[in-house]
Recover the amino acids of this structure.
């Protein structure tokens, strides 16, 4: 009966065989890079391949710092290192100590040739790029119906705006017929009236992403009437679709962030606008109230009773001044007349007496025409409620309210009866 060995025993045995082989301890392998990934730890993972086979590889951070260039898919290289077996995965790989560039791979050459061709045609020109609308309601997505890419797009979109409508075209994104499927998806969603379209897939090797490097896909994106966001692979992956699209996103999740506005951020912004508008309205209302108060004070100064009071004060001042002037004039005249009377004969004295009598009469007349004297003598000033002088009794009606200004104050009265008289 044959002895049964465990997987660990077989793998360990093979690892020992490989480790004892002097050729595999320091071997240089030439081929084309694929699946290049820079890890946050500083290690670099890659695959080196030719037309017949592929070999996994890793370059530890302690050796990666010696690289003279950045590893990328499609580049031909010569990798020097030791071939060993990773027991946990049961795979063999090359542990690279040094890597030097040997030339570009066939796919990379095709990529660069098409890129130059489309660039000369103007398909990458900024003037043909469409701006993304700030607020959208319908999002179109051209990608595989399963996988992390579509899940990330849906999750991020719904988180940012729960009411967004997502139209998914389940395209083939890898292998034979993938380019045709992507082109059809772009045309279908362009005709469906979506606001923005995301075209992309998850990461992979240059072969996995090649459908997005095909000319027909680039032309479909360029002719699309809907703004297109390209989201192919990881941040370090670059395809022709990225150059032609209106906007390039480093990942599908980032594409959703760019396409769909944040509902909560919008509501916060609107609340901020509301608060700002409220503050502006409050400030303007306060200013209006201050102006209204100022106008009220100015209007108060122009009330009829206030105006009359001012006029009465002015008349009193004028009257006092006139009385003083008259008294002074009379005093001077009397003094002069008395002096003259003593010097003049009797006839002149008689004439002088007549003159003094006339002066007294003039003084009495001046007194009678004084406005303040009229109020003192029992006369009154009548006005309506707006302060307009009322001279004609027929201008009033029964029930009207009038203000009567007389000595020592104002009387407000109701008109009960009007008796017509001619004076």
């Amino acid at each position: 009966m044959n002895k049964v060995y465990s997987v660990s025993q077989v793998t360990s045995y093979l690892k020992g065989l490989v480790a004892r082989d002097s050729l595999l301890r320091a071997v240089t392998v030439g081929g084309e890079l694929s699946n290049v990934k820079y890890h946050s730890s500083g290690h670099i993972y890659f695959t080196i391949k030719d037309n017949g086979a592929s070999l996994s590889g890793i370059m530890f951070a302690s050796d990666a710092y010696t690289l003279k260039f950045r590893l990328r898919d499609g580049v031909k290289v010569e990798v020097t290192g030791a071939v060993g077996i990773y027991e946990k995965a049961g795979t063999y790989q090359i542990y690279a100590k040094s890597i030097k560039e040997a030339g570009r791979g066939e796919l990379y050459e095709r990529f660069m040739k098409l890129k130059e061709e489309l660039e000369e045609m103007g398909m990458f020109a900024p003037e043909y790029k469409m701006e993304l609308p700030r607020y959208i309601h319908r999002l179109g997505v051209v990608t595989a119906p399963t996988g992390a890419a579509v899940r990330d797009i849906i999750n991020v979109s719904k988180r940012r705006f729960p009411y967004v409508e997502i139209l998914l075209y389940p395209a083939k994104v890898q292998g034979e017929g993938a380019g045709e499927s992507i082109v059809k998806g772009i045309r279908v969603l362009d005709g469906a009236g979506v606001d923005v379209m995301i075209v992309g897939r998850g990461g992979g090797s240059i072969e996995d992403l090649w459908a997005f490097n095909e000319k027909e896909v680039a032309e479909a994106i360029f002719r699309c009437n809907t703004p297109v966001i390209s989201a192919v692979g990881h941040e370090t992956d670059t395809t022709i679709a990225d150059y032609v699209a209106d906007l390039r996103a480093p990942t599908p999740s980032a594409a959703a962030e760019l396409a769909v506005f944040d509902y909560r951020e919008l509501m916060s912004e609107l609340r901020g606008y509301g608060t700002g508008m409220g503050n502006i309205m409050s400030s303007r209302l306060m200013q209006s109230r201050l102006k209204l108060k100022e106008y009220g004070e100015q209007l108060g100064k122009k009330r009829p009773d206030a105006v009359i009071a001012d006029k009465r004060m002015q008349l009193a001042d004028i009257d006092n001044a006139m009385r003083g002037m008259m008294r002074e004039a009379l005093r001077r005249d009397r003094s002069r007349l008395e002096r003259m009377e003593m010097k003049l004969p009797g006839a002149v004295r008689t004439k002088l007496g007549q003159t003094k009598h006339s002066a007294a009469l003039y003084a009495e007349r001046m007194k009678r025409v004084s406005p303040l004297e009229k109020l003192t003598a029992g006369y009154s000033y009548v006005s309506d409620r707006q302060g307009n002088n009322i001279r004609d009794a027929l201008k009033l009606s029964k029930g009207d309210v009038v203000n009567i200004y007389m000595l020592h104050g104002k009387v407000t009265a109701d008109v009960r009866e009007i008796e017509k008289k001619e004076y």
Observations:
- The first helix runs from residue 7 to 20.
- The mean pLDDT is 86.
- The CA atoms of residues 399 and 415 lie 5 Å apart.
